[in-house]
Amino acid sequence: MKRIKAMNKIKKLPIEVYEKIKAGEVIEDPSSVIRELIDNSIDAKAKNIHVEIEEGGIGKILLSDDGEGMGKEDLEISYQQHTTSKIEKFEDIFALQTNGFRGEALSSIARVSQLKIVSCTDESGGANYIVIEGGKLLKSGIEARPKGTSIEVSSLFYNVPVRRNFLSPVKEIKKIKEEILVKALCHPEVSFYLKINKNPVLSLAAADWEDRMTEVFPDQKDNFISFARKSPDITVKGVITEPHVSWNTSSHLYFFINNRAVRPRFLYGVVNSVFSSLIPKGRYPAGAIYLYISPSHIDPNVHPSKKEIKILIEDQLFRFVYHALKEVFHPSEKKQEDLSQIKKFPETSETKIEKKQEKEEELTLDFQGADLPEEQSNSIDYKYLGTVFQTYLMAEIDDNLLFIDFHAAHERKRYEALKSRADKMETQGLLSPRILNFSRLEIEKVSEQRDIFKEIGFSFYLFGENSIVVESVPAFYQVKDWENDFKDLIHTLNSKSVEPENLKDELLKREACRGSYMSGETVPPNEAHALIKEVLEERFPLTCPHGRPFIYSMSKKQLAGNFLRKS
Ligand SMILES: Nc1ncnc2c1ncn2[C@@H]1O[C@H](COP(=O)(O)OP(=O)(O)O)[C@@H](O)[C@H]1O
Ligand SMILES: [Mg+2]
């Protein structure tokens, strides 16, 4: 008897329960309502989108657009399940040009709120409206409204109290602002307007994407660097902040693929690879990267909330974006003559040094993209004041006192020089080949990466189970230094703290560090001058190869403040 009862557990869900669960997949909170409504407005070719919210969107969301609108018949089925004007058959999603295609958003919103839609398709001024509650049509009729659509969503989740109780207006407002910001970056050609509890909080005029970016992040206006690259299949463009400003979160980085906001891991990987030697570990630049590829390379049908898409050519995109960024942020790796185009010392009177102090960020001096006009060089007027704490060079320039961590600056200088010659690493044969012992696992790793070792200048052969014989090493080594580096490289490879393709870079960083002036050493004045000049001319990024900043400045005004002087 018991057994029979136990088998009888599966029941068909009442349709209302099932529908509420399903609606929850698309509509999780007020910001997802806004995401879906904005998507619909943009699909309807709206140029102006107004959003008003009350009680963090839980009480009320009102969105109106000036898009194509819906006729009476379309309006009356728009809130029903799986009704869409955007695709007709499954294959259409692989040629998709719209944000929506499932026909699920309005029906999901309709089931968990009180909804009013007013829409007009022409300039007649006469619009149709419908009022729906819990998915059921309550009323319909005619009212006045210019071309476009208004949607009012009230009492969200009134019939799903568990979910409603979970929402807090303060948190929802934050998410809504972020959602609108993402949409605004995605569609700079559209103007956005937001009112919270009747107060206007955001007004973004239609712009091009670069202007939109600075409209959204006015503080970073001077720090953004643009980049672009085009091939017949892929286009990438974007702006990213210079490496001297960085954040301990990646949430200021936005990625768009075919105007869809996405957060694919591989794109974070690209940014990490490009910036690993420019900013400290665990910190990120801010910016927006826009990618355009054929819709046939994308499967958007991965998740109802549209946060994910499947990209069918990830590797190709990785390389493409990587090179686009590399050209701008590591120009010295291209060709030596590119150095001549790197921006020289910036504006003279209003230097970036002062801007830095306003923001209390690290010094905002850095090289910029190679597309900047060449300026006069060698005319920088500074006074070298000596070294302090056996660690910092001090110089006076304009109204600023400059401190340069000489080890870190020298390390960067040497690293850049080594990198520019690293295409073909010169090797030197050892007079007597050297036998080195390793663990079995390490030997396996070394043999797997033999080609990479060869490329960076180490050639060797296996000797028994635990040894290798090294025959030649990179030419820059003095007699014995190579042995420690070689062993370290193998250990780091084995412990996976470095990827095989980064071995060369790791080696260059070590060599750069080894050959640099160490803190505590005396820097001869001529060397100090050379270093200061190159730093001021922005010959290289202003962080060490591990991402530490090496320059700090204090303005005369700042100093005076400590003495309660006005200047
Ligand atoms: N703001 C709008 N302007 C014009 N038509 C709209 C608007 N919002 C929704 N629609 C229409 O309602 C349909 C259903 O919307 P939705 O449920 O979001 O599904 P989807 O966007 O996936 O098609 C859309 O296909 C579109 O035809
Ligand atoms: Mg939609």
Description of the structure:
- It is a single chain.
- By secondary structure, the protein is an alpha+beta fold.
- It folds into three domains: 190 residues, Heat Shock Protein 90; 121 residues, 2-Layer Sandwich (Ribosomal Protein S5, domain 2); 226 residues, 2-Layer Sandwich (formyl-coa transferase, domain 3).
- The chain has 18 helices and 22 strands.
- An eight-stranded mixed beta sheet has the order 5-4-3-6-2-1-7-8, with helices on one face.
- α9 packs parallel to α10 and α13 crosses α15.
- The longest helix has 18 residues.
- The protein is elongated.
- About 8% of the residues have low confidence.
CATH H-level superfamily title of the largest domain:
MutL, C-terminal domain, dimerisation subdomain
- The CATH class of the largest domain is identified as Alpha Beta
Gross CATH architecture of the largest domain: 2-Layer Sandwich
How many β strands by DSSP? 22
What is the overall silhouette? elongated
Which ions and ligands are bound to the chains?
adenosine-5'-diphosphate, magnesium ion
Summarize the structure.
With 567 residues, the protein is an alpha+beta fold. Helices cover 33% and strands 24% of the residues.
